[in-house]
Design goal:
The chain has 121 residues and is an all-alpha fold. Helices cover 77% and strands 0% of the residues. The protein has six helices and no strands.
């Protein structure tokens, strides 16, 4: 027995024809291989400690993105930081700014404050 409105959801509509489509889709060796690899990756991430999983996923994403963009060692780290900052939310910007500032030495904190203080006037 179906729940009223159940067939209106995308999930329910996909399920209605999913069995037949899955049969066809899984006939492709490439698709089956990709599906199995993705499932194993998801299982491995789920088994990791959350802190370790974050580090691993961040490194993997950086590797994937670096394949799409040529490295620019002559530009330094600031272009990458600025690129990230363009996409970050305000709460992320504030959190990372404060956390980064707190990790600086006292001398670097003073230099940073002098730098941003000059920009505020």
């Amino acid at each position: 027995m179906s729940v009223p409105g159940e067939m209106e959801t995308p999930e329910a509509l996909a399920g209605a024809t999913g069995a037949k489509n899955n049969e066809l889709a899984f006939k492709s060796k490439e698709y089956r291989t990709r599906h199995e690899n993705a499932r194993r990756l998801g299982d491995a991430i789920a088994e990791c400690h959350p802190a370790d999983a974050c580090i691993l996923m961040e490194a993997a994403l950086a590797d994937l993105l670096s394949e799409r963009m040529p490295p620019a060692p002559f530009l330094g780290i600031m272009p990458s930081a600025r690129f990230w900052a363009e996409w970050a939310s305000v709460s992320e910007l504030k959190a990372y700014c404060l956390a980064s500032f707190e990790r600086l030495s006292a001398a670097d904190q003073s230099a940073f404050l002098a730098h941003v203080g000059g920009r505020m006037q």
